[in-house]
Amino acid sequence: RKEVEQDPGPFNVPEGATVAFNCTYSNSASQSFFWYRQDCRKEPKLLMSVYSSGNEDGRFTAQLNRASQYISLLIRDSKLSDSATYLCGLISGGYNKLIFGAGTRLAVHP
Amino acid sequence: GAGVSQSPRYKVAKRGQDVALRCDPISGHVSLFWYQQALGQGPEFLTYFQNEAQLDKSGLPSDRFFAERPEGSVSTLKIQRTQQEDSAVYLCASSLVGGWDNEQFFGPGTRLTVL
Is A43 on the interface with B (CB under 8 A)? Predict the structure, then answer.
């Protein structure tokens, strides 16, 4: 079993829709959690960190559920420009190496 | 300001050739990471440097892979006797220091194709 698992999608949604992705992880000792956005043939870019209390940044809300070992990302009022792959990442163990899921592809259509 | 840069951006190698991939981290960044991203997958950790010290190389897939950062800034990832399974995007990331809350900034990657 992979340490981080994501539904690969694609999620095809119309503009204005609300969409949510989950990511499960197997190592209960994982320390820090992140959502990265990766556009086609580009590098990953940090979208937001995920805190235990949940956090929001504009249209994006991230949640962490340590008991069930998953994190989630909610995107409200989807825009065409939100089309990308969303990577779930976590840090567990030493030296802060990131461990990523395979990514969830989102396609927002007019 | 300048971000992380990598060169070459694209590399085509014949099976058995050696390749060298370069990473220029953000100036002053202490931590440097190399990741390998296969098609349709997330990046996978290869190795980590703190300044010039390679503190973790647990992700290097074989002894054909070697990385160095001799002066604590530029890093080179070398792959000897390339194989087709080495075809991937190689991403370099740097962060200011090693703390978990220090964002890792990724370079654009080197896309390696082994024929």
Answer: yes
Which residues of chain A neighbour B42 with C-beta distances below 8 Å?
4, 87, 89, 100-103
Alpha carbon A55 to its chain centroid, in Å, reads 13
Q: Could you report the average pLDDT of every consecutive run of 10 residues in chain B (115 residues)?
A: 92 98 96 96 96 95 97 97 98 83 90 98
Q: Do B108 and A42 touch (CB under 8 A)?
A: yes
Instruction: Note if the bond before A8 is cis, omega within 30 degrees.
Output: no
CB crowding A32-51: b at 16 or more within 10 Å, else e:
bbbbbbbeeeebbeebbbbe
Distance, CA of A84 to chain centre: 11
Q: How far is CA B79 from CA A50, A72, B44, B65, in A?
A: 35, 37, 16, 5
